[in-house]
Amino acid sequence: MNERQMQFRVGVVVLATIIIGGLLATLSGPLTTSWLPWGRRSYIVGIKVDKAPGVDQNTPVRKNGILIGRVKSIEEQPDGMLLKAEINSNRPLYAEYEPHIRTTVIGDATIDFEFDFKHKRLPADAQPVPEGYEFRGAADESPFDAIAKFGALQQDFAEAAHSLNQAGTEVSKLAAKLNDTLGDGQKEGKLSHLVETTDRAMKQFETTLTAFNEILGDPPGGVAPTNVARPLNGQPPLNQQPPAGTQPSSGQEMRRKLREGLNELPDAVRDMRSTMNQFRVVLQSAEKNFKNLEGFTEPLGQKGTDITSALLKAVDGLDRMATDFNSVTQALGNRQSTIGQLLYDRKAYDNFNTLMLNANTVLTDFHDLTFRLKPVINDARIFMDKIATEPGRIVTGGLNPSNVK
User: Fold this and answer.
1) Which of 18, 34, 168, 312 sits most deeply, having the most CB atoms within 10 A of its CB?
2) Quick check: 338 and 257 in contact, CB under 8 A?
3) Would you report the helix, strand and coil content of the chain in percent, each value rounded to 5?
4) 83, 54 in Cβ contact below 8 A?
5) What's the CA gap between 207 and 231, in Å, rounded?
6) Distance between CA atoms of 240 and 231, rounded to whole angstroms?
């Protein structure tokens, strides 16, 4: 073999190698193979997106993770971007698929056609999209966008942590106020002091009511009961006689006399009313007599006996009325009588005035008690409402004990 033949054979091998390498690169590379007789056929679809980060010519197009084509061209339009993708003819696309542009960490982009087969099914009569069909796509967030958003959320997390800290502080303050109100093992709370004050006020009120009962109450059947409540000052009730040989105190004696006077007062009023009724009758009769005074001589001459008898009866009634009225006047002027004791004895007036002052004091203390209890009850209701709606405040207060003031 001469040198010329060897060069020819080497040239044929090199040419064949170039042709075969080009064919292999075309079959496995991004270039279209539709121009080859045995090449794969394709069709063009459009993808309308607002933005296309990282997308360029020959960007891979996948369908459920399988490569089905590449981007052929990119057109910029007034309302977004139109990507034209060349899809292999043996990979049909349906209108139910949705294209997503995804960007990797290194900046490479892919277009994925996806369909949720887990929750949806393609219609039985679904047809592949024709040549030139436009899909509406979306650009998914890149990892860097997520990281940037996480950085923006850092401020929100800081504010939330600050708010939780403030909430824990408020819960701690509320717990301190509750300890101050309810008390703990070292000191007495305001509520306990309020209860003791209420108990003392109720005892004083009981004493006052017992005194009223001794003066105004009546034992059933006129017999002194054996279970009458004994006053807190240790004195026996009025309707119980002191033991023989003991001298009753001035307060007991005064209450006894006051009770007797009050018992006799209805009879005195009844007698007064009867006397006044009689006096009214006499006045009416006198008025009639005065009206008939001008014709008194003639009736006196005609019916002198009857008129004289009637006049004597009227005078007799007036005399009895004057006698009764004199008795009432003497009873009012007698300092030893029941009404006289009420009118002239200073001790009875002072005791009754003291009784009314004590009753007024008890009622005032009771009103102050109810006024003080109202904010405590409101605070307890607010505390229980906050604990029910936000139980995390208790945990925060427990985790931050240094905030309790």
Assistant:
1) 168
2) yes
3) 60, 15, 30
4) no
5) 5
6) 12
Widest Cα–Cα separation across the chain: 205
CA dihedral 335, 341, 345, 350 (to 10 degrees): -170
In degrees and rounded to multiples of 5, residue 57 shows phi and psi of -60, 145
What is the C-alpha to C-alpha distance for residues 215 and 387, in angstroms, rounded to an integer?
53
Buried residues in 107-146 as b, exposed as e (16+ CB within 10 A): eebbbbbeeeeeeeeeeeeeeebeeeeebebebeebeeee
- List the CATH code of the domain at 42-140: 2.40.30
Question: For residues 168 and 176, is the Cβ–Cβ distance under 8 A?
Answer: no
Backbone angles phi, psi at 42, to 5 degrees: -145, 170
Using an 8 Å Cβ cutoff, are 62 and 112 in contact? yes
Residue with tokens 């824990």: 168
State both tokens at 349.
């007036």
Q: What is the pLDDT of residue 278?
A: 86
How far apart, in whole angstroms, are the C-alpha atoms of residue 137 and residue 118? 21
d(C-alpha 206, C-alpha 86), whole Å: 102
Let me know if 162 is exposed, middle or buried by CB neighbors in 10 A (0-12, 13-18, 19+): exposed
Exposed (0-12), middle (13-18) or buried (19+): which is 329, by Cβ within 10 Å? exposed
Domain ranges, ordered by start, for the chain: 42-140
- The string of pLDDT tens digits covering residues 29-41 is 555 555 555 455 8
Lookup result for tokens 């307890």: 380
Structure tokens at 89: 């003819």
3-state secondary structure of 55: coil
